[in-house]
Amino acid sequence: MKRHLLSAADLSRDDALLVLDTAEELAAVAERATVKKLPTLRGRTVVNLFFEDSTRTRTSFELAAKRLSADVINFSAKGSSVSKGETLKDTALTLEAMGSDAVVIRHSWSGAPVNLARWVRGSVINAGDGTHEHPTQALLDAFTMRQRLGRLEGLRVTIVGDVLHSRVARSNVLLLHTLGAEVTLVAPPTLLPVGVEAWPAEVSYDLDAVLPKSDVVMMLRVQRERMGAAYFPSPREYSRRYGLDVRRAAALKDDTIVMHPGPMVRGMEIAPEVADGPRSTIVAQVANGVSVRMAVLYLLLGGSEPAIGASAHTGDHDRTERTDA
Amino acid sequence: MTAVPDRPKRPDSSGDPATARPVLTAPELARVVDRMAHELLEKTGGGADVVLLGIPTRGASLARRLAARITAFEGVGIPIGSLDITLYRDDLRLKSPRALEPTALPPGGIDGKLVVLVDDVLFSGRTVRAALDALADLGRPRAVQLAVLVDRGHRELPIRADYVGKNIPTSLRESVHVQLTEHDGQDAVLLGSAEAGREGR
Hints:
The complex is a heterodimer. By secondary structure, chain A is an alpha/beta fold. Chain A has two domains: about 140 residues, Rossmann fold (3-Layer(aba) Sandwich); about 150 residues, Rossmann fold, CATH 3.40.50.1370. Chain A is built from eleven helices and nine strands. In chain A, α1 crosses α5, α2 crosses α11 and α5 crosses α6. The two termini of chain A are about 20 Å apart. Chain B has a single domain, classed as Rossmann fold (3-Layer(aba) Sandwich). Helices cover about 25% and strands about 25% of the residues of chain B. Chain B has four helices and eight strands; from the N terminus they run βαβαββαβββαβ. In chain B, α1 packs across α2. Chains A and B meet through α1 of A and α3 of B.
């Protein structure tokens, strides 16, 4: 049976909590063990199929798979047959023929992982598709929030910035809603997607009004490489209205944390003093990414059938029945 | 449900405890734990350097009880911990992935210590094999011993226990349930018949 992690919406509340709890145990293994490698996925092959530039996500998946003893093949579009005109489908079938058990895909097309899931037998994990979704980022963000604040239920999370181009924002809204947190999106009107009213989140244009009520502030990178037109008058004006500077950070509650999925543009959406300050979880997020991706790989590949996620064909939420107590 | 049988040691995974026959009652179980505590003290020369590592969930509870009895008898504190073996199992691919149980080592660690693994039922020996692999990744004990409440036979690996609460000869059609107050509301060891169509491993 096909089981994948394509969208944060594939995860039920129980699924998501199982991932977070599993990640917590796996993080403890890494801290405790003299040998950090686990034998769990020995003999399984994970292909990292990256059509877009990425350092932290690809490295994080690679490290996660290797810590579980899986074999990892890194495939980047540059310098591959893709540059000779091979289609995604042919690339996928080639990798499948080489015996991959899971494909971790990043692609600039929204929906590429969903298509891929129709073509390959193994699991497909979405590592970011266009402006659509990035479910493992949302999982590691939720993990980091729970680690720092002790809970997710009822947490007030403010996501600030380029929501329009952000797969991180979409996945976070979906997952945090599932987990019972209240999300507020703050962005200039030009950087909010059409249909945002239908998202399970509040929308505000006034950052200063929202900040003092927030438990978590997540800053998004302004994705200028995806911007063909002018979405705001100047970086300076954007920064003044929507950037988290020292003055704004001072308005936060004492225990509020500041997150950023990276890569960040210092001085644009976040001031260096804030990014490096005690509220910042930016480094912890990277470390937690490995544990969370280990948990996802274990739960999708570790058994005869996955413990989480949805099937590709139907996109529904039929769950793998757990036969074990 | 898949056709793959679970190791019939968890009450909710096979058999029906309601129709099962008690092999050890609560007072008998307490006496057996007392005896194991004495044996452990005797064989380890007073429990010096001993670390008890229970295999979750019931093994971890048994480790706590053994340590408490040893303290009651000799006044010495024995470091205890728990060791989850899920990620080291050899049957992971036969069923869907399980949730992980906590692993917790005592502050002094296990390097150079006499580690006594504690589990409720010794059956195929595969859990113990996985535990030995897990231990090797955590450190280097001076020696490793095994304490089990019930040895039901049918070993599939060359493994034996150093401390056995009770030997219960069983057929593969039978299932052994260890019940502990912390998890099941009562202390007992029950012998039942495995569900129709299920065979013990």
